[in-house]
């Protein structure tokens, strides 16, 4: 099969590799159709953050069941998307279904080969059937959309509350859509990129151009979705009395708070929460099932996809993202 392989830091090549075998603990062979590039793939591929080489990255993908065990619940031909985390199954976090808190987990696309290839062997518990109403292209966005929902679920949202998402990238946009769906009005989304703000505006969100407009103040629900020290401070300063803040962005660097900002946390009795990954238990009420219920209906993800290259273009695409020589929003490989 063809796969985009990270041979070493900053070195990607499209190569012929062996089709994964369906061993007893991974009985399903998935023919991958769409696979998205995550922001975390850039430091993994270009800043020496890979766990090992060679590596096939990619943890946001959808496909079709190519081979299935005789007793499997998903027959050949079933359209699926894949939860990329492989829990150990024995630790206390796994026993409570909090797989993202497992400290011995494996992961497609980082700790083991992932979705930037034509096939992948996957356990049944990691599969989610894609509803007929959802395209496979949209289904490839289930993972980041579930991450966004998981963060929004930390908030106690009541209809009519104001919302602000700092960061207009794909996950920030999806978080803003979830806030709107839950009843926040207005929902502001801030960024420096006019094109991202135009997308947000077309979805009924209220864009705020950073450096040209002041961020809203006294906001009820604030989500930081950039990961920059300055935006973490902005999130605290934008929250109003009894405001709720979710730190979603994976921080790059460190940040400090001035006395006035820290005092605001105390005086306004702010609630600050962290969020990580998403949850797939209990089935039916989990983040992934709920995302698939709303995709291509109340939650729109395809407008966020700016490029759909072939795997053959993968090396050039990654180089352009890393160098900043071309504008990208969300890139999903059409495999």
- General form: globular
> Strand-residue fraction?
25-35%
Helix content: 10-25%
Q: Structural class, from helix and strand content?
A: alpha/beta
Describe the structure.
Helix 4 (142-152) packs across helix 9. Helices cover 25% and strands 25% of the residues. The chain is α/β, with parallel strands linked by helices and 335 residues long. The strands form four sheets. Strands 3, 4, 5, 8, 9, 16 and 17 form a seven-stranded mixed β-sheet that branches. The protein has a six-stranded parallel β-sheet with strand order 12-11-10-13-14-15, sandwiched between helices. The protein has a two-stranded antiparallel ribbon with strand order 1-2.
Give a nutshell description of this structure.
With 335 residues, the chain is an alpha/beta fold.
Question: Which properties best describe this structure?
Answer:
25% strand, Rossmann fold, 2 domains, 6-stranded parallel sheet, 335 residues, globular, Quinone Oxidoreductase, Chain A, domain 1, 17 strands, 7-stranded mixed sheet, alpha/beta
Helix-strand blueprint:
Layout: E1 2-8, E2 11-16, E3 28-36, H1 41-46, E4 60-67, E5 79-82, E6 85-86, H2 92-95, E7 106-107, E8 119-122, E9 127-129, H3 136-139, H4 142-152, E10 163-166, H5 170-181, E11 187-191, H6 194-202, E12 206-209, E13 219-224, H7 229-238, E14 239-247, H8 259-267, E15 271-274, H9 287-294, E16 305-307, H10 314-323, E17 330-334
Parallel strand pairs: 10-11, 10-13, 11-12, 13-14, 14-15, 16-17
Antiparallel strand pairs: 1-2, 3-4, 3-8, 3-17, 4-5, 5-9, 6-7
């Amino acid at each position: 099969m063809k796969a985009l392989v990270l041979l070493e830091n900053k070195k990607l090549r499209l190569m012929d590799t062996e089709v994964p075998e369906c061993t007893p603990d991974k009985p399903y062979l998935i023919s991958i159709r769409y696979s998205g590039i995550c922001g975390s793939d850039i430091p993994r591929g270009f800043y020496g953050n890979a766990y090992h080489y060679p590596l096939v990255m990619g943890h946001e993908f959808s496909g079709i069941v190519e081979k299935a065990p005789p007793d499997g619940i998903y027959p050949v031909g079933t359209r699926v998307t894949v939860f990329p985390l492989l829990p150990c199954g024995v630790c206390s976090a796994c026993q409570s279904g909090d797989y993202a808190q497992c400290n011995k987990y494996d992961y497609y696309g980082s700790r083991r080969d992932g979705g930037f290839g034509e096939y992948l062997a996957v356990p049944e518990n990691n599969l989610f059937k894609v509803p007929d109403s959802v395209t496979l292209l949209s289904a490839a966005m289930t993972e980041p959309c579930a991450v966004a929902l998981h963060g929004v679920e930390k908030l106690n949202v009541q209809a009519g509350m104001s919302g602000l998402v700092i960061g207009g990238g794909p996950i920030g946009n999806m978080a803003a859509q979830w806030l709107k769906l839950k009843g926040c009005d207005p929902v502001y989304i801030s960024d420096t990129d006019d094109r991202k703000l135009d997308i947000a505006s077309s979805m009924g969100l209220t864009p705020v151009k950073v450096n040209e407009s002041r961020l809203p103040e006294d906001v009820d629900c604030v989500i930081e979705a950039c990961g920059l020290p300055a935006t973490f401070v902005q999130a605290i300063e934008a929250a109003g009395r009894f405001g709720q803040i979710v730190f979603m962005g994976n921080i790059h660097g460190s940040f400090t708070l001035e006395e006035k900002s820290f005092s605001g946390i105390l005086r306004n009795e702010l609630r600050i929460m962290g969020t990580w990954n998403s949850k797939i238990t209990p089935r039916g009420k989990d983040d992934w099932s709920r995302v698939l219920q709303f995709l291509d209906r109340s939650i729109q993800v395809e407008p966020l996809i700016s490029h759909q290259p072939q795997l053959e273009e993968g090396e050039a695409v990654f180089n352009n993202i890393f160098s900043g020589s071309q504008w990208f929003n969300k890139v999903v490989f059409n495999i």
